Amino acid sequence: MVSSTRHPQQDSPAGRPGRFGPYGGRYVPEALIAALDELDREYQSAAVDPAFQSELDGLLKSYSGRPTPVTEVARFSAEAASGARVLLKREDLNHTGSHKINNVLGQALLTRRIGKKRVIAETGAGQHGVATATAAALMGLECVIYMGEEDTRRQALNVARMELLGATVVPVSTGSKTLKDAINEALRDWVTNVDTTNYVFGTVAGPHPFPTLVRDLQRIIGVEARQQVLELTGALPDAVAACVGGGSNAIGIFHAFVEDTDVALYGFEAGGDGVASGRHASTISAGSPGVLHGARSYLLQDEFGQTIESHSISAGLDYPGVGPEHSWLSDIGRAVYEPIDDAEAMEAFRLLCRTEGIIPAIESAHALAGARKLGARLGEGAVILVNLSGRGDKDVDTAARWFGLLDSGGAPGSDSGTGDEK
Amino acid sequence: MSASVAFERARSEERAALVGYLPAGYPSVAGAVDVLKAMVDAGVDVVEVGLPYSDPLMDGPVIQTAVEAALRAGANTTDVLRTVEAVAATGTPTLVMSYWNPIDRYGPERFSRDLAAAGGAGVITPDIIPDDAEEWLPVARSQDLDTVFLVAPSSTDKRIALTTEACRGFVYAASTMGVTGTRDQVGDAAADLVARTRKTTALPVAVGLGVSNADQAAEVANFADGVIVGSAFVRCLLDADSPADGVRAAGELAGQLSSGVRRQA
Ligand SMILES: Cc1ncc(COP(=O)(O)O)c(C=O)c1O
């Protein structure tokens, strides 16, 4: 599952590791280099160690429930996607409810291999925090999760889940009090406690080796799905769609298809109130290249290079940066990135619930809304594979408010009490 | 003027140099200039002007608080350059301490040109390593600017050599594994790190992170060429009742630290 095979896109003309064209690299304090080198070394050796691989494979199968199925959603296709055949890769059926567990099980095993006893992680929606707390409980590691104060409020249920699993949740009240500030605080912890602590990074952003390491641990999504779609339809899909926060579920499903140049790859970013409003998280669609959290990539920044706060109804997509490999795939035209605003995502959310009996994570609903647009463009019969990255249990409160199902909820799109109120 | 000039003078006086940090724009752009001038008057040999940044991952709560306030008040890169110009006019070598993205966005070439024109000595870059600094080193060299990178207790000897090779002006040795902030004790790791660093370079080696009082300054002055103090100055401003009070408190602290680096306990 951890593939040691190098993808051609990974190497820049200069051939430096951890670069995707001009993107990626390591823009971090020197104090962290030793730990990043250690992680890279251990990962390289684990990737070719059959014992490590079989332990990871075993956990993915017996603990998380892999392989996850591909579900053809005929009613959704007919009613919501202009008759295109929509197939869902069901990462929502993983233990803990999202694709995040794929990455975390691998990194927790790596932590044990390195011999460290404490893990830290950042979380936005709480899904990565829950997954990390889960793996830490499973492997007997101390676990501290940094979460923006704002996010601890809108994802209170996940805070409780992490605490039930034995993790300590530290609310971060600096800066914008969201995911980006949680990452800053986790990096500060790591610099201070690096001798005992491994940083289990949650997405394909951050300094090398995280973009490569996390991608390789998420690659299994696309490896399975490619085979499953071939078996189901006898051909490769016309398009693959995923939501993009930091980009881990998207790169996970894209990667096995990158060489299949007839398969179009679409990443859907959070459009928030609409890109024109300035209140969004559409990093590639509306940002510019720069450096954030240790890597060169697209980001939301002002004319002086200060990070601009992102906005989205989806806490998991509410991040002003994106993984460097996505920036590169966009620049070379191999993948296309488009915004989906809050209202479009919530409409797709509602449609999947009503037509298929599947409540998606609001993050994943952005990919569903994207698939609706692709269906209209590609037409009847086109096959669209959508990564359903997570389930919506954590979002029931947000959705109930959005649709006016709770007394305290306002009209849709108004003060929903869950989105980007500040 | 390279910061090395100030280190040489200190060396000729058989003492360590005192390096003082303050972010531009706090408590205001003009207010920070007043404080920095008071620090210079009281004996600071080299000035670091911090460029306020939204995601300062090397900084602890004290500097974060000041920087957030400076950004909220609108401090920007142009204000930083104006601050450098005003302080450099005193004849004290003045560097900018900046995370990479604001310089990247301003344009490394334009930044180095404007900094040189403002009389700045160079730039301290806490979040780039020489391995990934090809966007910076050539342009900084072309303007004859100091390029100061950090070494840390976790750095291997090989990495220390690589880093000091890319440094001009001086080398910044991080005393402990951690972020900026005042500490009761300067880590034991600092002396060892300075010794390992000196084996690779003739450049002055200054120690930062955690130094806050004259006794600590004297202790560090025993084994290093320079003592870097930041959070303790910012703390003076955060605790001050008025801008004038802040100027006075920071000046007083600079005076004490300046006698500390001469004491060599
Ligand atoms: C269900 C789900 N999908 C997607 C994301 C976004 O992350 P990424 O872009 O790394 O897949 C999250 C993040 O919390 C999530 O919980």
From TrEMBL, chain B:
- Signal peptide range: none
Checking Pfam families in the record gives:
Trp_syntA
Q: Where is the active site?
A: 48 (proton acceptor), 59 (proton acceptor)
The Gene Ontology CC terms held by the record are: cytosol
Q: Which GO terms describe its molecular function?
A: tryptophan synthase activity
InterPro entries linked to this entry: Aldolase_TIM, RibuloseP-bd_barrel, Trp_synthase_alpha_AS, Trp_synthase_suA
Give its E.C. classification number. Answer: 4.2.1.20
Q: Which reaction does it catalyse?
A: (1S,2R)-1-C-(indol-3-yl)glycerol 3-phosphate + L-serine = D-glyceraldehyde 3-phosphate + L-tryptophan + H2O
EC primary class: lyase
Q: What's in the keyword line of the UniProt record?
A: Amino-acid biosynthesis, Aromatic amino acid biosynthesis, Lyase, Tryptophan biosynthesis
Q: In which pathway does it act?
A: Amino-acid biosynthesis; L-tryptophan biosynthesis; L-tryptophan from chorismate: step 5/5
Name the protein family. Answer: Belongs to the TrpA family.
Function in brief: The alpha subunit is responsible for the aldol cleavage of indoleglycerol phosphate to indole and glyceraldehyde 3-phosphate.
PANTHER family with a match to the protein in the record: TRYPTOPHAN SYNTHASE ALPHA CHAIN, CHLOROPLASTIC, TRYPTOPHAN SYNTHASE, ALPHA CHAIN
Matching NCBIfam families, A to Z? trpA (TIGR00262)
The record describes its quaternary structure and partners as: Tetramer of two alpha and two beta chains.
The name of this protein is Tryptophan synthase alpha chain
What organism does this protein naturally occur in? Phytoactinopolyspora alkaliphila
Q: Which gene encodes it?
A: trpA
